[in-house]
Amino acid sequence: MAFKSLTPGAMLCPVPAVMVSCASEKDRPNIITIAWAGTVCSQPPMVSVTVRKERFSHHILMDSGEFVVNLVGEGQLRAMDYCGVKSGRDEDKFAACGLTQTKVAELQYAPAIAECPLYLACKTEQVLELGSHDLFLGRIVGMGVQEELLDANGRIDLQKAKLVAYSHGVYQSLGPALGFFGYSVAAPEVLERRMKELNK
Question: What is the DSSP string of 58-119?
Fold first, then answer.
């Protein structure tokens, strides 16, 4: 097959679809939908989110130096989309979407979203001006997970969370597991057992 050359663009797909909650001493809690978020380091655990300067949440993130990345399941999808098309300048998005603020012990201002399956509490380590977006590099200082997502051994079962992804303007469910880290070299009996466990 031959490739057709295209104008360079941000076409990394799919990506996580998350709601970032923030607040500051001067600003009430707000939610911004972010599709450009990612893991950048495991020790210490760090993530990045990118935000346009003109977005209402940008100055809140700059002022507070903290934010919460809330993972989104299918049950929060409509709220996530709404928070991406409406501005916190005009309304309280927590109230508009019927979402609940939850205090995060490690942060001073930013709450987590109680309805989301899992949250990452972050303190900003660095802000990089990139062009259309600024990148906020956040150190993960706390995490919370809904208790029903923990199995008998205390491991997180993200299949139950029904997380969603964003792929070039479209939200999609993740679907059944197709493999696991190292599956290409797993023994046949291990492969069979693990795939059954993942897709039970």
Answer: HHHHHHH-EEEEEE-BGGGHHHHHHHHHS-TTTS-HHHHHT--EE--TT-SSPPEETTSSEE
Distance from C-alpha of 140 to C-alpha of 132, rounded to nearest angstrom: 25
Dist CA 37 CA 103 (whole Å): 22
Give the model's pLDDT for residue 200: 81
Q: What is the dihedral of CA 27, 113, 87, 36, to 10 degrees?
A: 110
Phi, psi of 53 (to 5 degrees): -60, -30
For residue range 144-184, list pLDDT tens digits in order.
999 999 988 899 998 899 999 999 999 999 889 899 999 99
Domains and CATH numbers, the chain: 15-198 (2.30.110.10)
CA distances, 157 to each of 14, 147, 154, 161 (Å)? 21, 10, 9, 7
pLDDT of 10 > 90? The answer is no
The mean pLDDT of 115-133, rounded to a whole number, is: 97
In this predicted structure, the answer to whether residue 1 has a pLDDT above a threshold of 90 is no
In the sheet that holds 30-34, the strands lie side by side as 30-34, 18-22, 66-71, 118-129, 133-145, 45-52, 37-42
